[in-house]
Amino acid sequence: MFDFINQLIFFAGEHIQGTEMEIPGLYITGHPPAPPEKVYAVAYISAGILFILAVALQYFLKKHLLKPKNTGESETENPPPVKYRTFKTVLIVLMVVLFYFLSLEAALQVYVYYNPYQKFIPDPTAGWKINPNIQRYYQNPEGVDPKDLCEMDGLLDWEYTRFKEPDAYRILVYGDSQTMATPWVGDINLTFPKLLQEKLRKAFPGKKIEVINMGVSGYSSVQGLLFFKNIGLLYNPDCVIVGLGFHDAGQSSAPDKDITSDNPWVKKLRTLLYRSQIYLLIRKKILRRRVVFRDVLKNNRPIYRRVSKEDYRENLKTFKDIGKKNNLLIVFMTVPQVGFNATAHADYVNVMRKAAEDFKVIIIDTAKSMSGFPLKKQEEYFVKDKVHFNYQGNEFMAEQIYEVIQPVLLKKEFKESGNNLKESDE
Asked: In whole angstroms, what separates CA 162 from the centre of its chain?
């Protein structure tokens, strides 16, 4: 029986559209989207108890709905019409099935609400995002109404809402886990976007400069662009720093553009499905099975880059075009890792450098700056995996960005009304 169920799950994983959505990034970055075994245990126990109740309910309904009327005649002497009995039988089955799945869904919803387990949850557009519940559970600052937290949009930052005050200058920083950074430095305020904000506020006292961390683990430029178009623009930014590219070079059994979707109908369907804990548990079970068989699948299926270099360049151009259309300052940023060229994805870094030159976009080339250090020195800026920054690495990133951004802002001045910058007449 269990072998049959496993085969069914494996078959579903091969044929259900979008089941590998979470695999490329989350498993690569060490954040599996599957819940711990205790959540499955709760589901199995609840399913077992509810199955017993469903059988009892079926017996009760069958006894009362199919029982002949009290006319003194036995059921065998004057049985109800066949159609009548068939209708009631179908009705009983539907009532029992509905009771079973609604009760199971309710039990799981209550358990997961009070026991958030997943740092990331499926997102109908970009594939996954930071779980607002778990972030609020661990990091909700005192005195802040949860509905006012921007992490409701899947951000690891609690200081800002979508509403921007008229005198504020807002910078969004897009990236992956290196930008998100919190698991490695332990505090939101020690990530390089926050350290950058501190530096800029000191350089421009009296000016309300806000730097919002839009980094999400495992994000490629496809996901970051969707995140920017659907969520980022709602924050009314003045400047957008794009530090994506590391995961674009990663391998997957399907390109990101074929897995993610900005189609409104697809988003509505996925949004509906993602609200069901039963669906998510089954889906996560499928994902786990797919990881187990990943090596087998590689021999039978083509392997793609998550984002081709051509698509990566086009995504960067789209960032630039949206920025121009909305009067935003767009800045490209390379993000280093330990290595001879201070990068593990040199081809994509070179694509960004060429794109910045062709599109006339400011670039902050932190990979180039890091490559000037010997390998032993580079390792001082990273944790043991040599990819994610420690505090010293976040400070290095903040300083590199500051050195480029500060002169740009220095050549400008805030308008007395509004939140845009204009060129100085001096």
From this structure: 18
Q: How many domains does the chain have?
A: 1
Quick one: which of 126, 107, 103 has its CA closest to 115?
A: 107
What SS3 string covers 104-131? HHHHHHHHHHHCCCCCEEEECCCEEEEC
Q: What is the mean pLDDT of the chain?
A: 76
Neighbours of 103 (CB within 10 A): 16
User: Residue 371, SS3?
Assistant: helix
- Rounded distance, CA 341 to CA 346, Å? 7
Do the domain assignments include residue 92?
A: no
Burial readout 123-140 (b: 16 or more C-beta within 10 A, e: otherwise): bbbbbbbbbbbbbbeeee
Q: Which two tokens stand for residue 304?
A: 């793609």
326: tokens are 């909305």
Beta bridge partners of 336: none
pTM score above 0.90 = no
pLDDT in tens, 174-228: 999 899 876 677 778 889 999 999 999 999 988 899 999 999 888 999 999 999 9
Cβ–Cβ < 8 Å for 19, 12: yes
Task: Compute CA distances 323 → 67, 87, 140, whole Å.
Answer: 71, 61, 32
Please report, for the domain that includes residue 354, its CATH number: 3.40.50.1110
| Rg, Å, the chain Cα set | 27
Domain hosting 205: range is: 145-262+303-411
Residue 51 tokens, joined: 């199955």
Positive or negative, the CA dihedral 343, 174, 159, 412 is positive
* DSSP E strand boundaries for 124-278: 127-130, 168-174, 208-213, 239-242, 251-252
